Amino acid sequence: MSNRPLAAAGRLVPLLRAGLIAGIVVAAVAYPVVALTGVGAKATAHAVESKTRLLTTALPAETSYLYAPDGKTVLTMFFEEYRQYTKLSDISPHMQQAIVSAEDNRFYQHHGVDPKGVARAFVANARSSGVSQGASTLTMQYVRMALRDSAVTPKEVQEATAQTPIRKVKEMRMSVDLEKELSKEEILERYLNSAYFGHRAYGIYAASEIFFSKTPKELTPVEAATLAGLVKSPSQYDPASSDQKEATARRNYVLDNMARLGYLSPDSVQAAKTEPIRLRLTYPSNDCASVPEKWNSWGFLCDYLKNWWSAQPAFGDNRLERLDKLRRGGYRIVLSMDPKIQAAAEENVGTKGNTGSPFANGIVVAEPGTGRVKAMAVNRTYSLQVDENPLSSNPEAGPNVRANYPNTVAPLMGGGDLPGYQAGSTFKMFPMLAALDAGMTLNTTFNAPHRYQSQIYDGWAPTNASGAMSGTQTMWSGFGKSVNTYFVWLEEQVGAERAVRLAEQLGLRWRTDVDRDHASPAKANKWGAFTLGVSDATPLEMANAYAAVAADGRYCEAIPVSAIYNRDGTPATFKTAGGIEREVAKPRCRQVVNADAARAATDAARCPTGDNPAKGGCGGWSTADSVRGTVGRPVAGKTGTTDSTRSAWFVGYTPELAAASFISDPDNPFNAVGDGQSQIPIAAVANTLRDALKGKPVRDFVPPSDRIVG
């Protein structure tokens, strides 16, 4: 019986050498099981040809890189399979020769399927009455890997890797067809970028870096043979294991083959085989927790980048698709933050020496006119290790729940799914801006009592923080002193719903059931307390909303990047609803209120800071009159505190930058920070703006027109 398989193999080889190969014929001869299934070439030809065409353009998953603003310094990477695609010209010839020697000695002689290999497999399989031995060439292995990597469903993954004769038939057919479309060099390049080498190293770039801390171009013959030997069984031949015996034997096998094929001299191989395997292991960083320690606070920016990315339709139809694209798409992403501004922010919220407090003090700095986030810092350590954090200050959290300090990765400054913190009187900007945009003037006057009973908000009767705030107020003095009763009255005049909708247009989102209910169309016009900042907001939202005022009413979506490049170096783009193609990293801006209204709001917003407005008077005192002296240039802004000073805020801006800072307990909003700490956000913003703008030319705000002054 054993003579018949050998005779059949002898007849098969010349046919294959003559090029008379069809996938189904090869399979039927080499794998008798397939012939019994009734699978025909015509039945599978269309699907096979379609997939073959796909493989000519398909590229494997590739690592995405996150860069510092210089576009050169790598902060971290995002990957499921650590891989960077590398051109064949950037791969050592030794590595090219080693992989051929290890996996497919006749790679340059066959046309996708090796007839000698098929004959060997045929003999082995006939004797075992099954499929005991494959005949996979480099091309066939690449086809299998490419089908696996391009699979989008579990079924496709299973079909690409199933150990069945049918899968082998398709693989052979596709390999033959692929070699008609791609050169040997192109196939070898793709193979070397797809193969798995162990230790999460996918492709030769990752393998070279992880095992030897060098580029593929720098690999020596010994190193190349070591890596090539891994592909067959990365775990069995792992050179990083405690016993290198099998890894060394496999390496030497590859070296011997390199000599037999004429790639290396026998003498050099004998010398190389005496060398021990010398590794220089590197473990690549992955995700935001791997941002280097010296830039620890940048981890919060990285985390915001991920949350922002997951909301961009340009990268997929849902959050999971978009994050998968981030980990597999080979993007080059450059953060928008400014290292000088970030350093100032970190210094002024105490990121290094004040992380042991339950009260989070954070700051976000945004750029008017672009929406780009220039800094994001909080007095916390960005870390997943929370086991040694104290217990939460929230009595309802449960007995074993850890607090968010000193370590956390929670998006405390916005950009995630946390609701934020009640922002107090910083919300007075929204009804004032809405009133100005509706045609009211800065000189709109009201004799504000200490207590005001609303006839619109069902008899609600708010009071001022101090009796000294009573009396006749304008927008300048009412904003500068933060007169509650003036702004409740003003909100009544313009309509609370108009103020709520304007806040939404400026980027605010309602994340609690209570806020969503009050902001609904049915109830928004009765939300009188909106002007007092009873809604939750994040520093990111508030910095960006005030940045729109600084930019003459032009709102730009918050964005954490200055550039995003595809794997081929082109800018990542998306199509707008109107079909216009735009770069994902470009600012997305729109005019929300007219420029004169925004300039008028800024003129009033100079009063809280101790600055002098261009057109009016502030009424003699203000809530943060030290800010102008600290910043040393024209500045506007607004303080905000909540009941019992559970949280305190300050949002300030110049023509160049807008910054929002808060102090609150993220774990327990009822844990009041107290009046004594209400100055902390004021100082954080003032000092950060001062330090960030040091050495920059002084710019003044554009004054409002006389018409809107009134």
UniProtKB/TrEMBL annotation:
The record places domain Penicillin-binding protein transpeptidase at 363-667
Task: Tell me the ranges covered by the Glycosyl transferase family domain, including all copies.
Answer: 75-258
Q: Mind naming one GO cellular-component term on file for this protein?
A: outer membrane-bounded periplasmic space
Record's protein name: Penicillin-binding protein
| Reactions performed catalytically | [GlcNAc-(1->4)-Mur2Ac(oyl-L-Ala-gamma-D-Glu-L-Lys-D-Ala-D-Ala)](n)-di-trans,octa-cis-undecaprenyl diphosphate + beta-D-GlcNAc-(1->4)-Mur2Ac(oyl-L-Ala-gamma-D-Glu-L-Lys-D-Ala-D-Ala)-di-trans,octa-cis-undecaprenyl diphosphate = [GlcNAc-(1->4)-Mur2Ac(oyl-L-Ala-gamma-D-Glu-L-Lys-D-Ala-D-Ala)](n+1)-di-trans,octa-cis-undecaprenyl diphosphate + di-trans,octa-cis-undecaprenyl diphosphate + H(+); Preferential cleavage: (Ac)2-L-Lys-D-Ala-|-D-Ala. Also transpeptidation of peptidyl-alanyl moieties that are N-acyl substituents of D-alanine
Tell me the protein family, please: In the C-terminal section; belongs to the transpeptidase family. In the N-terminal section; belongs to the glycosyltransferase 51 family.
Q: Which UniProt keywords apply?
A: Carboxypeptidase, Cell shape, Cell wall biogenesis/degradation, Glycosyltransferase, Hydrolase, Membrane, Multifunctional enzyme, Peptidoglycan synthesis, Protease, Transferase, Transmembrane, Transmembrane helix
Q: Which domain of life is it from?
A: Bacteria
Which spans are transmembrane here? 12-34
The reply on keyword Membrane is yes
> Which GO MF terms are attached to this record?
penicillin binding; peptidoglycan glycosyltransferase activity; serine-type D-Ala-D-Ala carboxypeptidase activity
The cross-references to InterPro entries, in alphabetical order and at most eight, read:
Beta-lactam/transpept-like, Glyco_trans_51, Glycosyltr_51/Transpeptidase, Lysozyme-like_dom_sf, PBP_transglycosylase, PCN-bd_Tpept
GO BP annotations, alphabetical order: cell wall organization; peptidoglycan biosynthetic process; proteolysis; regulation of cell shape
Name the source organism: Micromonospora zingiberis
Tell me the classification of the organism that encodes this protein: Bacteria, Bacillati, Actinomycetota, Actinomycetes, Micromonosporales
